[in-house]
Amino acid sequence: MHRWQARLAQPGVTGECFFERKRTGLVFQPARLTLLIKERGTFVGELPSPWDSELNDWTIERGLRAATLQNEGERFGLTFNDRLYPIALRYGDGFFNAVLIQHLMREGFSDVAPTNRKLERIRENRPMSGEPASDCALLIESAIQTIAGNLLRGLTYSRAEAQAVLADGMAYYLDERFNITNAELLGFSRD
Predict the structure, then answer these.
(1) Which of 58, 78, 92, 122 is the most exposed place for a label (fewest CB within 10 A)?
(2) Closest Cα partner for 8 from 39, 42, 54?
């Protein structure tokens, strides 16, 4: 972060991020976040760094967008993982998964193309109703709202752009959490 901060502090220097997480077969290589450096609008170099939640948060605080909306969706897919992991740990995977899917369906994510395609391939038990399910759903919604706020206020995307990135990010997260692409690569259908 210090290298990035020092470079961006120079006069006339701006930047944007590039998220990269290559797949090798069924496994991902470590994620990377790269600062694409521009001087007076012209690309002059890059500073790569291993993915780090704190570095990602720092880029958001400084308004450093990803190079494209698609790349932003991928970056925020991993951001969803960072934000939702503690909730899954607290409630357990099965319960969390069921509440997550129920919440996403209720909140209209099933009406948006990228997440709809993933949600159609996921089969989870419905959670029992009650206070634990309500509490878990509130924590999930809080994480989603925080990420939406990052897109709207921190990165100053329009509402339509933020919604597209949010949907792409959630689709990326669901794909990995429920091993959708891995199942397809192995020839298994989740239909």
Answers:
(1) 92
(2) 39
CA distance 30 to 22: 8
Name every residue whose Cβ is closer than 8 Å to that of residue 40 and which is 6 or more positions away in sequence. Answer: 12
Alpha-carbon distances, residue 168 vs 6, 131, 163, 173, 174 (angstroms): 32, 30, 9, 9, 10
Q: φ and ψ at 116, to 5 degrees?
A: -60, -45
Closest CA to 102 of 76, 140, 146: 140
Single pTM value for the model: 0.91
Q: What is the pLDDT of residues 98-153, one digit of tens each?
A: 999 999 999 999 999 999 999 999 987 776 788 999 999 999 999 999 999 999 99
